[in-house]
Design goal:
Strand content: 25-35%
Distance between the termini: 34 Å
Helix content: 25-40%
Structural class: alpha/beta
Length: 253
C-alpha cells in the first residue's frame, strides 16, 4: 500500500470521514478529516532510506562484507525540514474552515523504527535523562524541550502530530499551541487515547522531565543546569540514545 492509502485506512478505522485534497498549483495539504464534528487538516510526510546510502550498503553486502548502521535517536535536520514543509502547506490552505492542523509522519523502509523515535525527538526536542544522584530511583526518563524543537518553532500553526510505524501510532499534542487544551479533548485524542502524548501529564505523573524556562537550547550545559535546579537533583545526566545495526548476506547452500 502507498503511504496515502495507509493514512486513510487508519483515519477511517478511528472513525473519521476523510477527504483527499486535490493537488493544485502550489502545495496543498493531503487530507481533510472530520470526527464527531471536529475538523482536522493533515499533511502527510513519509521518511524512508536515502537511496545513495542504500546503494552503497548493497555493494557492501554483495562483497560479502558486514554492512553497519550507526545513528542517534535525536532531532535530525532532514526531519525538521519535512515538518517545516508541512507547516507551509497547512498554513496556506484556506479552502475550508478547520479546527486543528496536524502533520502525519510515517516511518517507511528498513530503518522505520529509528525514524519513529527521531520524529518525536524533532517535534519535542527530547532526550533521555538519568539521575545518578543519591536517592535516585534508577529510572531514566525522557525530557521534553531539552533541545531545539519543531513544536516551539511552529506553535502558531502546528497543533500536533501523528507519528506512525507499522502498527504503532502516537498523537503528539503541541502543548505550546493556543489550541492545546481543545485538541486534548478532541475526538481524535479520544480515539487515540492509548497513544496520546501530553508532556505536561508526563511531568505531573513523574514519567518525564520538562524544560519550560527561557534557556538557550543550543547550550547543553545551561539546559542541564536549569533542569538540575528545577528538580533539585544535581546529578541529572543527558544520555543520547544510540542506534547500531549490522547485516551480512549468508549464501544458500
Amino acid at each position: 500500500m502507498e503511504p496515502e492509502e495507509i493514512v486513510v485506512l487508519i483515519l477511517e478505522h478511528l472513525g473519521a470521514t476523510v477527504t483527499r485534497i486535490p493537488r493544485e498549483p502550489g502545495k496543498t495539504p493531503d487530507f481533510y478529516a472530520e470526527i464527531g464534528g471536529t475538523r482536522y487538516l493533515i499533511e502527510l510526510k513519509s521518511k524512508g532510506e536515502d537511496p545513495i546510502r542504500e546503494a552503497a550498503r548493497n555493494v557492501t553486502l554483495g562483497r560479502g562484507d558486514i554492512a553497519e548502521d550507526h545513528d542517534t535517536a535525536e532531532r535530525k535536520n532532514v526531519i525538521s525540514g519535512l515538518v517545516a514543509d508541512a507547516v507551509k502547506q497547512l498554513r496556506a490552505f484556506e479552502a475550508r474552515p478547520v479546527d486543528f492542523r496536524l502533520v502525519w509522519l510515517l516511518g517507511w523502509g528498513r530503518l522505520r523504527r529509528l525514524y519513529f523515535d527521531q520524529f518525536e525527538a524533532a517535534l519535542y526536542g527530547t532526550t533521555t535523562i538519568a539521575d545518578f544522584g543519591p536517592g535516585a530511583d534508577e529510572y531514566a526518563r525522557p525530557c521534553y524541550y531539552f533541545g531545539l524543537n519543531d513544536f516551539h518553532r511552529h506553535r502558531e500553526v502546528l497543533d500536533g502530530a501523528v507519528i506512525w510505524c507499522d502498527n504503532e501510532g502516537k498523537l503528539l499534542l503541541n502543548d505550546l499551541s493556543d489550541r492545546y487544551a481543545a485538541l486534548r479533548e478532541s475526538a481524535l485524542a479520544r480515539a487515540m487515547a492509548g497513544g496520546c502524548i501530553d508532556p505536561r501529564d508526563k511531568e505531573r505523573n513523574r514519567e518525564a522531565y520538562y524544560i519550560d524556562g527561557d534557556v538557550d537550547r543550543r547550550d547543553e550545559g545551561a539546559v542541564l543546569a536549569y533542569l538540575r535546579e528545577k528538580y533539585g537533583r544535581n546529578k541529572l545526566i543527558n544520555i543520547t540514545m544510540q542506534y547500531h545495526g549490522a547485516a551480512v548476506l549468508v549464501p544458500r547452500e
